[in-house]
Structures are given as C-alpha cells and as structure tokens.
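Follow-up to my post from last week.
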Amino acid sequence: MELKNILVGQSGGPTAVINSSLYGAAAQARLHPEKIGKCFGMVNGIEGFLKGKVLDLDEALPGDELKGLLTTPGAYLGSCRYKLPEDLEDPVYRTLFEKFEDMGIGYFLYIGGNDSMDTVSKLSRYGRKMGSSIVVLGEPKTIDNDLVLTDHTPGFGSAARYVASTVREICVDAGVYDTRSVTIVEIMGRHAGWLTAAGVLARKFRGDNPLLVYLPEVPFDQEAFLKKVEECFSVNNAVVVCVSEGIRDKDGVFVCEYDSEAGLDSFGHKMLAGCGKYLERLVRGRLGVKARSVELNVSQRCSVSMLSAADQQEAVMAGRYGVQAALEGETGKMISFIRKSDAPYSLSCGLEDVDHICNREKTVPLSWITGDWTDLGEEFLTYAKPLVKGNVQVPVDEDGLPLFVCRK
Amino acid sequence: MELKNILVGQSGGPTAVINSSLYGAAAQARLHPEKIGKCFGMVNGIEGFLKGKVLDLDEALPGDELKGLLTTPGAYLGSCRYKLPEDLEDPVYRTLFEKFEDMGIGYFLYIGGNDSMDTVSKLSRYGRKMGSSIVVLGEPKTIDNDLVLTDHTPGFGSAARYVASTVREICVDAGVYDTRSVTIVEIMGRHAGWLTAAGVLARKFRGDNPLLVYLPEVPFDQEAFLKKVEECFSVNNAVVVCVSEGIRDKDGVFVCEYDSEAGLDSFGHKMLAGCGKYLERLVRGRLGVKARSVELNVSQRCSVSMLSAADQQEAVMAGRYGVQAALEGETGKMISFIRKSDAPYSLSCGLEDVDHICNREKTVPLSWITGDWTDLGEEFLTYAKPLVKGNVQVPVDEDGLPLFVCRK
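User reply:
Got it. Predicted complex:
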C-alpha cells in the first residue's frame, strides 16, 4: 500500500476537547507508519489552508508533546467560519483538491459542528464526482450537542460539567443573603437547549436551585415567567433561573430582541445578546426585588477547569475511530456515538452519512421538558449524568496556572 | 478559667475561602475545651443575629464534617450587608451585648472586609466603653485585596488565580480565528485594581495577551485606549484587554456611567455595570473590528475550581490566629498578614488596630503601573505569584460535580 499523508482541520467555535479529537487522530495516525506518511494540520481550517497555512504535526508536537493537546482548550490549529459555495463547479473545489494532491493527502478529517459537516459533505461529494481517491470524514464537535444521528457530541460533556458546577456555585453565592433575590443565568444555545438543561444537574437535592429552567425548544411567556418566579419565593428567598440565550416567545421573537438590535453572522445566524439582562430588568421592574444576571459566556466553551474525563476520552476515541475509518476508505461520513446502555454507561462509535447531518439540528425532546416547561424530567438526567463524569487534572506551570500547548 | 463560648459571623460578599477562615476558627476553638465552651455561628451576620438566627457549629458540622468548609464557596453561615449606627448610644448596641451575655459569649470573631471591620470597630469600642469583657476581633476577607495594614487578604489569591487562569483560557479562545478582534474582559474591583492586575499573570510569554490592562487607580482616556488597541494589532490580530469594572476618566466619571444610569447600594457605593459592554461598542464603532466583552462576574468570588492552596491555608491560619488572639484578650484588632520574604515566600500573622483599617482602601501603588498605565511591572508579579500557587482538589459527588456542605 502506497504511503498517503493525513490532513486534519478544526472549524467553528472551540470546545474544551476539540484538541483531544485532534490528539486521537494524530496519535492513531502515528500507529500506522506502514500506511500513513505525515500528519498535517490545516491552520485556521479551510480558510487558512486556501492561503497556504499548514503545519506538520509530527514536527510541531513530536512524541509525548502531543499529549499536551489533551488539556489545551481552544483550537490548537486555529479555526475559521468559512462556508464553501453551494455550486460544486466553483473553482475553489478544484483549488482545494489540487492542494490536497500536491501534498500527497489521502485522508482529510475535519473536526467541527453543523457548518463544518456541510464542508465535509461538499468536499466528499466533489471528490466522488471527480473520482478522487481522497477520503473526507467529519469529526463531531460542538458544545451545543445539536448534531443529529449521534447520541451526543464531544465537547458537550465538558461544557455541561462547566455549566452544572458553575450554576451550583452561583446558587451557593445567591443564597448567602436573607433577602428576596432573583439570579438569571444565561447559558449558550441558540436553538438547542441541551447546555441550559445541564443547569438542573446543579441541584444538590429535590427542590434545590436552580428552581426554573427555560429552553429554546418551547415558547417563552414573560407573564407566565413572572408568575412562576413569584411562586418560587414560597420555596426559597433566592431564586436562580437558568435561561438559554435563544429563548423565544410564541411568535418566534427572541427575548433578547425585546432589548436590542440583532445582526447576522457570516452563516446567516442571528447574533444574540442580552436575554439575561433583559429578564433581570423585567424582574426588578415588575416584581420589585433584587435581580441580577450572569452570562456564562465563552468559558463554557474554552474552560478546561471542569473538563469531563468521559468527554475527553470519547473525543480521543472519535479521533482514533476516524483515522481507522479513513484507512478503510470510508468517505462522506461523520463519526457518531452509539449508546449501548445507560447503566453501566457504554458507548461505541459508528459512521453516519454526513449529508443526513449537516444543516439539521437535534433539539431536546419535548417530552423531556416538564413542570409547565420550566424543568427537565428524569430522562434528561439519565442521559446527561454519564457525560459529565470524571475529573481531569490539568498540568500547571511554575506559577500554578494551567499549562497549554500553543503553535509556535 | 471560666468556660466562655465563641461566636463567629460572616459578612459582606462571599469568597472562595471565607469558609476556610471559619474552619480555622472553629477547629482552633475545638483545641481548647479547657477555655472555650461552644462555638456558635451567626446566621446572616449581625442582621440575622439580631433576629435570633444562630447555630451551634459543633452540632451542625461535628468532627471531620467541619473539613467540608475548606472546599465550600459562598458563606456557610450566610452573610449580610448591615451597617451599625455611628452613634454608640443607639439601643442596638445594648441589644447585641445583652444577647452576647445571654449566650455566654466571651469571644466574637467577624469575618469580612472594609464594612465588616467598621462593625468590629464599633462593637469593640462599645464593649470597652461599657467595661465588657467580651473581645471582638476582625478576620480579613475580600477578593478585592483592598484592606490596609495587611500584605494581602484571604480570598484574593483564589480570585486572582481564577482571573489569571480564566483570562488565559479566554486568550486561547480569542486567538482561534485569523481575523482582527478585540476581547474586553471586565474584572471586579470598584476602586482597587488588584484583581484586574492579576490578569497579567495569564501571559504565557513576554508580549503575550492580555496586551492591555486598565486599573481604576489611574485615569482612563478613551482616545488613548483606542490608539493603544490599534497599535496592538501590529503584535497580535486578537487583542485581549483586561479592564476593572471601576475605571474612571480624569474627571472621576466611571466609564460605565457613559452607558447607563448608576444607583447606590445600602453602603452608599455606586452600583456599576457594563464598562466592558461600553468599550466593546466603542471599539466596534470607532475601529470597525470584531469586538466582544466578557464579564467574569460572580464566579470570581464564588468559584472553587481555581482555589489557591496558598490562599486556603492562609485563610485557615488567620482563623486559628484569631482564636488564639481572642484567648489572649485582644480586642478591636484585625488579624493581618506580614510578608517576611518573597523568595522563598514566607508569611506570618499579626494584629492591627481595626480603627486604622475600616473605611480605608489600599490600592495598587502607582509606581507598579507601567506602560503608559496599561501594564503592571515586575513588583506586581513578585507580589502576586506566591498568592495564586497550589492546586486544591475539590471533592465531587456521585455525579462528578463539586460537593459542598450546606446549612440544614
């Protein structure tokens, strides 16, 4: 068998374990010197690659240095938000495949979410159309957990663990004063409420804070919300509420849009900001109680302080599986997770046609949303608990701060 | 010697180690059964105590259960923001001391910051005036590190470690895209910039992000800021800026006040919000680049994910020292930290007259602020590095989330 090189790229928003998937792929590639030559990394994804930005991972992170990726957040290779044209006749495709051929690439793995799977779909379709032998596979990655045809996605478990533990800390903080207060915690998730739902894991006992959880899957009603908050005061003076950044009213208007103008990002998504701030003001104004809001912000996707060991191991597993699938000639597929059982928790990898994944979204099942749409049922807890398990010790530098690998 | 009881209270905003100080005091009290009877905790500080809220710490956290305090954030006893009247003739003082006598209290330790030291000052002055044998001592506590006559305060080290590691993660996140961007990180600190200064610890090498740091100790000039940001683009496409929530212009106007109305809290402090958001919009509008802001928010004071071992141990030490000082009859003092040397780092406890501490603020020395007021010099690094050292493993529950003790 002729030696071919492997190329790995990262795309979209970072997660705590996107570099663990990269580690898995590179480590697995090194196990096959008889089939795989070099392991290249695209710098800044497809966009950087088109500008000639690429690095040799074996030179950049030789030997055990590769393991630094396992506890480094962000995207080691750099990322991009770049949408390939719909028309496969566009010259960019020819340019890309010529570059692949020039570099002796046989296998291309792209680590990303929805939009990146769109890139995998287009490239694999173009490759097949042109009779290219280069295989193109997608490695799942998103804190939003919104990819279809997979039990969950790498990145979600660590983000969910960060949300659950941070919300638990915020609940403790909220409870120190003996006065009525409302704390709104705004959690990432434009259309899917998985990460906001993870807020319920923060409860230490039944009836504990967060007392209310609002997902974007169901319509948000401001009057019903205010009524629920008032009811909660009979249980706890300090009411903590988790809300998804993407909650909408019955007409589909984002709650944050009541507050400010919204623009569009390069993929045509609405840029959201401020539903927590809006609800804080609403509560203060209408209920006359102390209110504050906390936007968990980018730490949800870039903190390794709450890395889930399960998530990290699964990201590595997906990376390794992708290389094996590529060696077997699979193309146009995404590595998926198949849950075998909840207790004991057991998971294996599979492959799904990427065309059935890109541009679709998996949301929280409506039947899992309970308590007049303000809570999650047992199904969610059973689903989520295995994903946030296990602590990872992040190496520290001489100052006692987390030690990360970075590109030279 | 007659057995007297000890009473401990917590006041003001929580920190990651305010409960470690409580642990130190309670553990030390248990070492003296020949002198100290019961160890009581005020629930919700002076305010709750006046309503009769008190608990028996030996019953609530017997034996080794007390150790749970070492890794529990928030204020286990609950807190308050309550200012005693200036006039020592006010009947509240008599009420308080009658309650102390009724409970057989010989020693009262109040854990808190500036405003709580004001309470310690008034109570000890009243006690002396009335010839009471009850001693009243202050245990320092504040993430702001703004108490005078002490090298630093318990709570600062862990908050600084949280800020430094989170800013380091945000810098990694900011650097993933190959486009110009500005990330404003808004850090707590109304008048003292200690915590914002800790942002510079995030740098992995000289010239690394955060490239600019703005403290409230020096006037903030919007035009100079925009010029500095533009200059930074020659070094790095992704510019990360740390700003204190309390930055002000040369006329003393808070930058956040350009954006919104500001109210007053019960101590007459201005309630600030949004200088990060304001600067984000300023950068986007004036420089036409991608800009975002991240408010680190309450996790700075309530997260134990980045607990500093040094800070935790020193909080315990201060708690223990307070009990010993109380047994020796000291009153109207605050436990202070005296740094013996930087390398090796060595610290001991002392006592300072609380009247010289309350209602004063220690700010970052102007000579430590460098780079046209956008950076910190070596003095700060030498000062701060020992305080953020050492990792603490927080126990986890069956779901892998941090396990805290809480009042029944």
